[in-house]
Design a protein that fits this description.
The complex is a heterodimer of chains A (215) and B (70).
Chain A: E1 3-9, E2 15-21, H1 26-49, H2 54-60, H3 69-72, E3 83-90, E4 93-101, E5 118-125, E6 139-140, H4 142-156, E7 163-167, H5 172-177, E8 181-188, E9 191-196, H6 198-206
Parallel strand pairs in A: 5-7
Antiparallel strand pairs in A: 1-2, 1-6, 2-3, 3-4, 4-5, 7-9, 8-9
Chain B: H1 13-26, H2 30-49, E1 55-58, E2 63-66
Antiparallel strand pairs in B: 1-2
Helix pairs in contact in B: 1-2
Classes of the chains: A alpha+beta (215), B mainly alpha (70).
Chain lengths: 215, 70
């Protein structure tokens, strides 16, 4: 059932009530992709208009600019219990989305090594909310709210708040601000593994969720 | 959070003992272990239905064995 959630309106500086959907369906992911895709294309168009050579476009673009939530929705086929997709919506527009896995990953950090965690497969704020996509982002705290939702889900599943994910290099700073720690020796395809321990999760919920980030 | 229903589960002593051991090892409630097992079982089924295979790999012995799920 959708619930209220506060996000930051960057224009007014006030917090506004958005809707948190704890279960986002395939058709809603396709809808989100239809909303977000033109903004992703605009990033590339701006770089080209600024004279950036085509060979440099990928390097100068946000590292997730190629993501496609309509394609990502395929992992939800068969309604797997292990995967959850949730999101934040305001005024009919999707402000952020995440897909998490509840069954295939375990923690590496002590004291909980080998114990299950909520693994964030994908997490993204709408392109119009990101400073590396637009000059004037519309809403803030989306990424923080999505991480908070992962922690609360972890708590409700008896995982004690443990969360893990592989971070794009550009996003590492954000996850560190959330209290996540890089797990050494676990890099994969140029990405580092980050985990939130049970103590860090508790700290996040006690006030860290007000962490000041640009996400 | 999705609504939950309650059911009675009948287990042998040995099954109950294993459930207890797993719950202790993973620091989960017995209910959470059962739910986790259900997720894993369904995920395996979904991926096998897609035509994928499930393997165990012994890195030391360099052996890979396919797990047949009935």
């Amino acid at each position: 059932m959708p619930q209220g959630i506060l996000i930051l309106d960057r224009t007014s500086g006030d917090f506004v009530q958005a809707v948190f959907h704890e279960e986002v369906k395939t058709h809603q992911l396709i809808e989100a992709e239809q909303q977000w895709k033109p903004h992703r294309i605009a990033v590339t168009q701006r770089l080209l208009a600024a004279g950036v050579p085509k060979s440099e476009i990928a390097r100068k673009s946000p590292q997730h600019v190629h993501w496609d939530w309509a394609l990502k929705s395929k992992c939800l086929e068969g309604d797997p219990l292990a995967l959850r997709c949730y999101g934040i919506e305001l005024n009919g527009e999707w402000q952020g989305l995440a897909i998490v896995d509840l069954s295939m990953h375990v923690a590496h950090l002590e004291p909980d090594a080998g114990k299950p965690l909520v693994y964030v497969v994908f997490l993204e704020s709408a392109p119009w909310n990101l400073r590396n996509m637009v000059d004037e982002p519309r809403y803030g705290r989306i990424g923080v709210r999505l991480i908070e939702a992962a922690i609360r889900l972890s708590m409700s599943e008896d995982f004690k708040g443990r969360v893990g994910l592989y971070a794009l290099p550009q996003a590492e700073g954000f996850y560190r601000k959330c209290g996540m720690v890089c797990v050494e020796g676990m890099a994969y395809r140029g990405m580092n593994l980050f985990e939130l321990t049970r103590d860090a999760a508790a700290a996040f919920l006690e006030g860290g969720s007000n962490v000041n980030t640009n996400e | 959070m999705a609504a939950k229903k309650t059911m009675t589960l009948n287990l042998t002593n040995q099954e109950m003992a294993v459930l207890g051991q797993l719950a202790e090892k993973k620091d989960l409630s017995k209910t959470a272990i059962i739910r986790q097992a259900l997720r894993l079982y369904q995920m395996v089924e979904i991926r096998l239905d897609r035509g994928e295979k499930l393997y165990f790999e012994d890195e030391v012995e360099k052996m890979k064995s396919e797990l047949l799920v009935l």
